[in-house]
Structure formats: C-alpha cells, structure tokens
C-alpha cells in the first residue's frame, strides 16, 4: 500500500505499520508527534530525509566499535552491531545485521556493507574492539600453540596468522603502537550498554526484532534531538 493524501485506515496499528514499511523502503525515520482517537500525527525526524546513521557519522569520533550478541528465539543466530560515539561521548548507532553465526565471512560481509554505505567517511585508522573473531578464520590457534609454529614438522598453514598480522601496519592491530589515537575509547562499555537496551528483542521472531530495533533507533535519535535542541 502506498501512502497518499486522503488515505484512511481502520485503526492506528495499520497506520504505524504503513509508516514502518515506508521508512524501510525509503530510508526515512518517522516519529509520532501526537495521537488522538481518530488521528495520528507523524513526521520525518530529519527534514532532509537523509539517513541519520550515515550522515551523522562524519561528526563522530573516528573509532568504530563492533560486537555480536546471541539471539534466543526460534530462529537462532547473531545480531551484529556497529557503534560510534559523538563529541559528547554519547552512543551513535551505525548499523545492525542478523546473521546465522559469527565468522570471518559474516563479519566480512557486515563490515564491507558498512564501509560501502559510509564511504570515504571512514578513516584509515579505524580500530575494531573485537578483531580476534575474524582473525580466528586464519587459524589464530597456531599463535597460541607455539609448538605448531616452532615444531620441525609444522605445516605451511601454521604460519598464516603471523604472516597475516605482519602484513598489516602494526598500529592497525596493537594498542601499544597506536600512537595514542584511541579518542578515549578504552573499553567496550558503550556496546554492552546498547546491547542491554536491545535485550528484550533477542527472543523475538526475526521480523519483529528488526522492527523493534528500528523503533528503538528512531526513538533514540528523536530523544537526542530533543536534548540538544533544549540545550541550545
């Protein structure tokens, strides 16, 4: 159903559902301003109708935190989350994705789409809090078990983790050589905090969980907009 002038609905639930579908199709974010017995007043949070997560990231600290949380519903899997922080150290949600499991392939897919969406906004020095999981896909266990690397009969694959890491700039994957470019991001508490907000959604069906997450995201941006407007 396409929204148009003069269209009527039997109840407010149908109106909200139509707005949700429109928002997902056109990357718009609507909030309910006022509700009466016969009318529901909604408006786009951003007057330019740009995606807030994409457009707003350019004003955040150049550090992205990523994490995954378990889903406990009938269709189990993982909810991948990417977060940033603004100048006031407030949470800035960037992206969510539902995958079957945490692996190098799923994280690679998630991060590739995140990079394609945000584009050149992401600096070269992007750091990830949970870099160990993707590295496991190149047999990080070989590093932990020295005998596999040092043994006389070691296989060529046992050297893959070392080769993989040393092929990258050392300041990209070590805290001791990052030249202090942490931007006060010393923990992943910001992710744990937001995961707590989404805790009630982990047992929902996939479609309901996506709608729940989207609603939380819209409400969060709306509340932050009100706070900033009030401070001004």
TrEMBL record:
<dbReference type="Pfam" id="PF10551">
    <property type="entry name" value="MULE"/>
</dbReference>
<protein>
    <recommendedName>
        <fullName>MULE transposase domain-containing protein</fullName>
    </recommendedName>
</protein>
<feature type="domain" description="MULE transposase">
    <location>
        <begin position="63"/>
        <end position="117"/>
    </location>
</feature>
<dbReference type="InterPro" id="IPR018289">
    <property type="entry name" value="MULE_transposase_dom"/>
</dbReference>
